[in-house]
Every structure is written in C-alpha cells, then in structure tokens.
C-alpha cells in the first residue's frame, strides 16, 4: 500500500507541474486573479459532484472545526496565486523547486516543534544539509533559466 501512495503522490506532483505550466500561460491572457478564480470555481464544481455522489464524511463538520484549521483554504489559494505569478517569470522548474524548498523548510519546523498535532521529529544536520542543497538547486536552476532566456532573446 505504501508503494501505491508513493505512486499517487508522484502523479500528484506531475499534475501540479502541468497545472502550473498551463496556468502560467493562461494567466497571460486572462490575468492572474482570473486564472486562479477559474481554477477554484472548477474545483468547487468538481468536488461538489464528488461529495454528492461519493462523500462519506460530514460536510457540516466544517462549522465545528477550529478557525485555525480553516486557514488551510486560504493557504491553498495563496499558493495557487503565487505559483500562477511565478511560472511565467521564472519558469516551471524554478517555481516548483522553490515550492518544494519552502515545503521542506516549514515541514522541518512543523516536525521539530510538533505543530498541528504532528509527530515530533527533531531537526538534525542531515535535514539542514538537504535544505541547503535544495536552496543551491533553486539558485542554479534560476541562473540557468535566466541564461537560457537571455540567449533566446538575443
């Protein structure tokens, strides 16, 4: 089952990169906010249908959730807007590696401090090295993108 979850997560990453690229291009014609709106509206319609036919939870449970847990919706929207802005400017790979770097940084803090009822996994030098390599990767990818862009415009 773990292998299946890894494959599903890999597929999620593939769709996220494809979505970023398509939305970045689309935003040049429709605008950043409008592109994000279309994505959210489409997601609302799609998920409403899924909830109606396949939902097994308690939709009204949203009303009893702590306010801090509801912030996830705003965080997701913020992520989407930022990626739609970034992709046309720095490219898909630079955007996604930067996103992953940000995810790693906050994930290390969440694990270390046990925020949001997560497991406590202490910060160590291996995690610091991984984070440093990700930041270096973002730098080199961005520099390569800039060079390729300048060469294409020459």
Automatic annotation (TrEMBL):
Record-given protein name: Membrane protein
Organism annotation: Oceanobacillus neutriphilus
Transmembrane parts of this sequence: 36-55, 67-87, 93-116, 128-145
Pfam families noted in UniProt: DMT_YdcZ (PF04657)
UniProt keyword list: Membrane, Transmembrane, Transmembrane helix
The keyword Transcription regulation belongs to this UniProt entry's keyword annotation: no
């Amino acid at each position: 089952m773990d292998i299946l979850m890894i494959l599903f997560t890999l597929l999620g990453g593939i769709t996220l990169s494809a979505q970023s690229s398509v939305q970045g291009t689309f935003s040049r014609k429709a605008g950043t906010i409008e592109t994000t709106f279309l994505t959210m509206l489409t997601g609302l319609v799609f998920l409403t249908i899924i909830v109606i036919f396949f939902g097994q939870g308690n939709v009204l449970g949203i009303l009893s959730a702590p306010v801090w847990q509801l912030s996830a919706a705003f965080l997701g929207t913020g992520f989407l807007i930022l990626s739609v802005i970034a992709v046309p400017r720095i490219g898909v790979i630079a955007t996604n590696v930067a996103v992953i770097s940000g995810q790693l940084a906050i994930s290390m803090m969440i694990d270390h401090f046990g925020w949001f009822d997560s497991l406590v996994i202490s910060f160590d030098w291996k995690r610091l090295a991984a984070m440093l390599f990700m930041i270096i990767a973002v730098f080199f990818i961005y520099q390569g993108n800039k060079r390729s862009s300048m060469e294409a415009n020459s």
